[in-house]
Specification:
The complex is a heterotrimer. By secondary structure, chain B is mainly α. Helix content of chain B is 79%, strand content 0%. Chain B has a single domain, classed as MetI-like fold (Orthogonal Bundle), CATH 1.10.3720.10.
Chain lengths: 240, 220, 220
């Protein structure tokens, strides 16, 4: 379970998160929507310990992420992350991209790391590309590679930071399908997204962020059909 | 107009000596490059990551190496250190001078290389649980090496070319050896013409090896 | 009135003037060589770009030789070759001749890069407006390409300025040669080298900073 309470985060003078309270249960899929700059992506970085926080607490399975004695590298193995810019490692083959972290972080023997990588690449539909370099892949394929890379750490949670925003429109579908597949398999996911269709069809709950606060959170039916907040309604009407 | 008679025989007789001196040239240039790469990498990282006196030291090194003549740098290690009672051998003078020069230029190449790797690569690596050291060693540095590979090759050529200044501080590398024989026989033109050819061949070999190595190293 | 200001033992005002004069000679030979070499190199660069058979098979390899043989060897060779073919040149003229060709060999590549940077669409546009070939070169290629490679040209020019120190092997008393002479006489290596180094640095550093700034501004 991920428990966030009273979380504050700022970059210099700029307050980005202004008191976030949120719990994500095991097996749940949460979509986070909202305007750019509302702090959605920052939340993911804070959960992963990639950004320090100013106040509050984030606990993953009871472990405080931002405590001094927390082994972040160990904790991050539980938290897979997929970025907007897919960040594949250009100097490694597709297989090496996925097998590297299992080998050097999880300390798996070379053969096992390779097997894990192969399994996950099949999983996302890249089984026939293992010897290619990322430069030869399309954006959608590179993003699926990034998903496989994160899955190879056998994480318990997956954090998606606008995983489809940087893709050409015709490539969005294949990545969303992969995410949908993970959701169906029971992965716990937090997805920052602009894809309202995905948020409505796949999530258990949807959170609408507004200026560093959760304006409204609830089942997709409520958010998309019967929003209580005027701001939510306004945001959604603008997007459609 | 051609009253001059060319005499090539003495040069050819000394060709084995010249070739041996060519190996000395390669040795001192290679050694300076190895040291230069290690120091240059350190200087670049200091300039990118640190503040304070260490950074000031690194910046001074880089700017002095790039903005004064290589010959000046050699003289500094030759006569300049004499002011402090430190007298280096000709070999040490050339090695120190070349290393100082190469480290300075390479540091700038490395700095550019590091700046060309997006911060997000490190983030992605860290998000997979890699330590900062692992992220640098496995993700950043291999990519930097690719970027600085050709600049390093060019620097190696440059190191060979400026090692010829050894002849001005009494070091018997290829140029120094050539001068030694030339001044004994007064066949200056002939000796230096052959040496010019040898330098050309050495440079071409370096470039060829570098290109072959690149094909093996970089497949992406 | 003979008054001697003592800096350290043996170093006096006349020595200082001697160094100053030598610095002037460094500037003079650099300026003349860079100016002539740039003109010649621009011409070569244009020939390389136009890619006439002659340029590709004769000019390019010859220019490559000047970049693959140490400058000091080129200087010694030329100085000893000129009398053979009946040319009587003093050290200054010999130095200018070699440095000019050396500069031209380096500038040729820069200039070709500049012309390539302009791109065919722009040039077609110029020709479509009715400009002649020469008008296109003068009003389109020169300003646009020149701007693209100006920072590289500054790098070449500063390199030649520093390399001009090597003309000392011909007996031309430029700054470093003068320093060496004074060091032998006064035994004040540190002070004298510091002066020489500061002169080169004061010339090169601000200009290279300025070129970097231009490059960054134009890159945007």
């Amino acid at each position: 379970m991920i428990e966030i309470s009273d979380l504050y985060k700022s970059f210099g003078d700029l307050q980005v998160l202004k008191g976030i309270n949120l719990q994500v249960e095991k097996g749940e899929v949460l979509s986070v929507i909202g305007a750019s700059g509302s702090g959605k992506s920052t939340l993911l970085y804070c959960i992963n310990g990639l950004e320090p926080i100013q106040k509050g607490s984030i606990k993953v399975d009871g472990v405080e992420v931002h405590a001094k004695d927390t082994d972040l590298n160990k904790l991050r193995q539980k938290l897979g992350m997929v970025f907007q810019q897919w960040n594949s490692f250009p100097h490694l083959t597709v297989l090496e991209n996925v097998a590297l972290a299992p080998r050097i972080v999880r300390k798996l023997p070379k053969r096992d790391a390779r097997d894990v990588a192969l399994k996950q690449l099949e999983h996302v539909g890249l089984g026939d590309k293992i010897e290619s370099y990322p430069g030869a892949l399309s954006g959608g394929q590179q993003q699926r590679l990034a998903i496989a890379r994160a899955l190879a750490m056998e994480p318990e949670y997956m954090l998606f930071d606008e995983a489809t925003s940087a893709l050409d429109p015709e490539l969005v579908g294949e990545v969303l399908d992969t995410m949908r597949l993970l959701a169906e398999e029971g992965m716990t996911m937090i997805c920052v997204t602009h894809e309202m269709g995905f948020a409505r069809d796949v999530s258990d709950r949807v959170a609408f962020f507004h200026e560093g606060l959760i304006e409204e959170i609830g089942p997709p039916k409520q958010i998309f059909g019967d929003a209580r907040s005027e701001r939510t309604k306004k945001f959604l009407s603008k997007i459609r | 107009m051609f009253e001059y008679n060319f005499h090539w025989r003495p040069v050819l007789k000394n060709l084995p000596d010249l070739l041996e001196a060519g190996l000395v040239t390669l040795e001192v240039a290679s050694l300076a490059m190895v040291l230069g790469i290690v120091i240059g990498l350190a200087l670049a990282l200091i300039r990118l990551k640190l503040r304070g006196p260490l950074r000031w030291f690194a910046s001074s090194w880089v700017e002095l190496a790039r903005n004064t003549p290589a010959l000046f740098q050699l003289f500094f290690f030759g006569f300049g250190l004499g002011a402090f009672g430190l007298h280096l051998t000709p070999y040490a003078i050339v090695l120190a001078g070349l290393t100082f020069n190469c480290a300075g230029y390479l540091a700038e190449n490395f700095r550019g290389g590091f700046q060309a790797i997006p911060e997000t690569q490190i983030r992605a690596a860290r998000s997979l649980g890699m330590t900062s050291a692992q992220a640098y060693l496995r993700i950043v540095i291999p990519q930097v090496i690719r970027i600085v590979y050709y600049p390093i090759t060019n620097q190696m050529v440059w190191a060979v070319l400026i090692s010829s200044l050894g002849m001005l501080v009494g070091f018997r590398e290829l140029s120094g050896e050539t001068q030694f024989f030339a001044s004994r026989t007064y066949r200056i033109f002939e000796y230096f013409a052959v040496t010019a050819v040898l330098y050309y061949v050495i440079v071409k070999i370096i470039l060829l090896v570098s290109r072959l190595l690149a094909i093996k190293l970089f497949r992406y | 009135m003979e008054q001697t200001v003592q800096f350290f033992s043996g170093f006096n005002v006349n020595d200082f003037l001697f160094l100053g004069e030598a610095a002037g000679r460094t500037l003079l030979i650099s300026f003349v060589s860079i100016a002539l070499g740039t003109l010649l190199g621009g011409l070569f660069g244009w020939a390389l770009y136009e890619g006439k058979l002659f340029a590709t098979f004769a000019l390019a390899p010859v220019l490559d030789v000047f970049r693959s043989v140490p400058l000091i060897i080129q200087l010694v060779l030329f100085y000893n070759f000129a009398p053979i073919v009946g040319l009587r040149l003093d050290p200054f003229m010999s130095g200018v001749a070699v440095l000019t060709i050396y500069t031209a060999a380096l500038v040729a590549n820069v200039a070709r890069g500049g012309i390539e940077a302009v791109g065919q669409p722009m040039r077609r546009a110029a020709r479509s407006l009715g400009m002649t070939y020469w008008q296109d070169l003068r009003y389109v290629v020169l300003p646009i390409g020149g701007r693209a490679v100006f920072p590289s040209w500054v790098g070449v020019a500063l390199g030649v300025m520093k390399d001009s120190a090597l003309v000392s092997v011909l007996g031309y008393v430029e700054l470093l040669k003068a320093s060496q002479i004074l060091i032998t006489r006064t035994q004040e290596p540190f002070l004298i080298l510091a002066f020489a180094g500061a002169f080169y640095f004061a010339l090169s550093y601000p200009i290279s900073l300025y070129a970097d700034k231009l490059e960054r501004r134009w890159a945007q």
